[in-house]
Specification:
Blueprint (H helix, E strand, L loop, with lengths): L11 E5 L4 H12 L3 E6 L8 H4 L8 E3 L5 H11 L3 E4 L6 H6 L1 H20 L6 E5 L25 H21 L5 E7 L1 E3 L9 H10 L4 E3 L5 E6 L1 H17 L6 E4 L6 E3 H11 L6 E3 L16 H7 L7 H16 L4 H16 L2
Parallel strand pairs: 1-2, 1-4, 2-3, 4-5, 5-6, 6-10, 7-9, 8-12
Antiparallel strand pairs: 9-11
């Protein structure tokens, strides 16, 4: 199967984390597909943000509240009565999880519990997709990609919290949701880049902030190898999987990887060099490796299951992802209408899906 745009027309979709980077792009794409989208998230944390730059509040209604507030999420679910739920709300940063570990677990783990509890008592829900992370795997620094059946774990609180979410989703699926007719899957994607990401302690936003200000970028782990992809790549996977959950139910209710081809598996240092080649001004960086908290050195995903069973595959190369990201940033700097620009990038990507 492949993503069917007509499937989403008029579909009632609850999207948590809709004010974030990935959530904002997904909200806009769902609206382009004709879905009836309702969001639940905190106000956009970054300033500026994709939410503000693309004027997404004009198109996506929702509740601005904390996923840790069980009563508020239950009220939102009961009021909107969604058919499909896409759960992206999270504390998404490794370094922040070292600074605030309890808050990270409360948001990522108990926030997901709050949502799933609300959904199993709703009556309208058919499919739930919970987005976790490629960092949910017990990283053994081995050379081959991780598959969905490999062991879960996590050195840092963020990674550990995402492994916990995978376990609790499996428990809720077996204990409660299956008997309620709700199909639940989890999605694990690689490192995403794209326009409109101004998060703190994330490589691409840090690069753009430093170079735009004429400053030198400080790299912490230049040798760390990651699976890089444009943000629309995993979002396409999420849309394919959510559709399959509605149409096929329990047959696809499991964990799924959505990672780039091997050419997208490069070190932090190489990614910075590629960006510097495309950057219109001066691009400088230094390395400060001492005294940094632990992060994985090598991480890759095997997405064979998604390729075979969902007909999903990456459409843009890493170089194309870099170019699309810098194009978006330069358009924003030039004062262009970023909702129109973002919709055009979605249309270009969607056109390649159907080629």
């Amino acid at each position: 199967m492949a993503m069917n745009a007509a499937f989403w027309a008029g579909r009632r979709v609850l999207l948590t984390g809709h004010t974030g980077f990935k959530g904002g792009w997904l909200a806009l794409w769902l609206k382009e597909l004709g879905a009836e989208v309702y969001g639940y998230a905190l106000p956009a944390l970054a300033e500026p943000s994709l939410w503000q730059a693309a004027r997404l509040a004009e198109r996506v209604p929702g509740t601005l509240a904390d996923i840790r507030d069980a009563q508020r999420i239950a009220e939102a679910v009961a009021t909107f009565r969604p058919e499909v739920v896409l759960h992206l709300a999270a504390q998404p940063l490794v370094r922040e999880s070292y600074r605030a570990p309890a808050e990270t677990y409360a948001t990522n783990v108990m926030g997901t519990v709050n949502l799933l509890e609300a959904l199993r008592h709703c009556g309208s829900v058919r499919a739930v997709l919970v987005v976790t992370s490629d960092k949910c795997y017990e990283n053994r620094e081995w050379l081959w990609p991780y598959r969905e059946g490999d062991g879960l774990g996590g050195h840092d609180p963020y990674s550990s919290s995402k492994a916990c979410v995978e376990l609790l989703c499996a428990s809720w699926r077996e204990s409660f949701l299956r008997e309620s007719g709700i199909a639940l899957a989890t999605a694990r994607a690689g490192n995403v880049i794209g326009g409109g990401d101004w998060s703190v302690d994330r490589l691409l936003p840090d690069i753009l902030r430093a170079w735009q200000a004429g400053q030198s970028l400080t790299l912490r782990y230049p040798q760390a190898v990651r699976p890089w992809q444009h943000v629309l790549e995993p979002l396409h996977g999420y849309l394919c999987l959510a559709q399959a959950l509605v149409e096929q139910g329990e047959a696809v209710a499991s964990a799924w990887n959505f990672g780039p081809d091997n050419e997208g598996l490069v070190s932090v240092g190489e990614l910075v060099e590629r960006l510097a080649q495309r950057w219109p001004g001066e691009a400088r960086w230094t390395v400060e490796a001492s005294g940094q908290p632990h992060e994985a050195g090598l991480l890759a995903l095997d997405s064979s299951q998604a390729r075979v069973r969902l007909n999903w595959r990456p459409r843009w190369t890493l170089q194309q992802a870099i170019e699309r990201t810098l194009d978006w940033h330069q358009a924003w700097q030039a004062g262009e209408d970023m909702q129109t620009f973002s919709r055009a990038q979605i249309a270009a990507y969607q056109g390649e899906i159907h080629e």
